[in-house]
Amino acid sequence: MSFIIYFALIIIIPLWAQMRVKSAYKKYSKVSSSSGMNGAQVARKILDDNGLYHVGIEETPGMLSDHYDPRSKTVRLSSHNYHGDSIAGAAVAAHEVGHAIQDQQEYAFLRFRHALVPVANIGSNFSWILILIGFLASISGLVLLGIVFMAVAVVFQIVTLPVEFDASNRAMNEMVSAGIIRNEEERDTRKVLNAAALTYVAAALVAVLELVRLILIYTGMNNED
Fold it and tell me: Would you say 10 and 206 are in contact if contact means Cβ atoms under 8 Å apart?
């Protein structure tokens, strides 16, 4: 029974977080900001205010596909946010610019996350293969190696949290100081940013739970030996 509850939780938690962010985004993507600026203009304004004239802004396909690319120094905004003047679009654009500011200032957690990317990718791709083979062949060493790889991926998820929360805080501060949103719009903007942050919290929580479960299974496997 506990096994069923566990798997229900790791499925429900991410789904709930995704529903929250989609609900908040859908609601506030229909509310225009008082400044009337579209996402591209919001991003350009904040970038220029911080001396990031070299950082480009591009439109990218897809819904909520917005991101900052540190390799090309480019903020990419989904079409709806790029062209739209909604509170949600402004919040998302400002958040991605927050990452660009972090990059400029060499924000420690962002640097650490970038350093973890290659190992985290390996961990995500191969950890379960090693763990599965280890369990099937009763080779505890392979299981342990798989858990180590997974642990690196989990650390990546955890380090992502301060990076995302900091980018959202920077976004709020920049939007307020630049006059992009007014006082009465701050609460709605914060709702969009907080909902988006929930997806990262949910992903980290599920990753930690799964890692703990595998460690307990591995410990039990060794105790039986």
Answer: yes
